[in-house]
Predict the structure.
Amino acid sequence: MNDKILIIKLGASGDLIRTTPLLRVLIDDEITWITHPKNMELLPADSFNFKEVLSIDEADYLKKKSFDLVISLDDEIEVAQLASSIKAKELVGIYMGRDGRPTYTDSAAPWFDMGLISKFGKAKADSLKIANTRTYQEILFSMLGLTFRGEEYFIRIPSGINCNQKHAAIEQRAGNRWPTKRWNRYLELASRLETDGYKVWFLEQRPTMQQFIRDIGRCNTLITGDTLAMHIALALKIRRVVALFTCTSPTEIYDYGRMKKIVSPYLNQAFYLTDYVAKAVEAISLEQVYKAVTE
């Protein structure tokens, strides 16, 4: 098509990664991507169809340019204002409404109707999200009139990645916004796996995203919650990813045939709550997770 396309996706790093399958189908187009500075090294800016990867702080000059399509995927005011200020033949996603608040195009309703700025309000948005049966990628692609066919993530991967047999990485951390993501038996799991001959380590904060990716790339098994590490492991095609879902949607995550999902039976009672829901965490047993790793 050779269209000029602007993608605005800042957000959480994991959300950015799960948006990158779009690059697989926009292969003939010229892509400009605006993101948060911390996410810039995730994107393969030297890919043949990338025009630019810019931080949001560098984006003002784009107001002098025009695009065939703007895809605006975050509901922050700065994103809505930017999307509304750029000349485009078509806009899909978030923009600034006449009332001075972010809103979204009808084409993007399948996703944003379930979000924080849903036109239906929070209660209806939550019920729509619980009832949803499609992955994020399926919804995203449909917003653009496309069909998701399992296109892989597309991120910058450091050279020399070497996944080792019986090396297991554990991501026990989760952001403060979702405390229920933190399963309480990772230490016991690590001890049991080490007894079985696994080399086990816990992921830690690293100075750069590329170093963090390399850490994950050393293993052939990752045990995690719904986290950035989960998305990176899927992008790296790690042989086995075991992901625990205690308060966020397992349905939205496409597993690429490489991930085992363990879903708390109390998921709906903790669904996107920012308070800690102990029973949603404790209902996932050590034996469940151990079997998912070893069988």
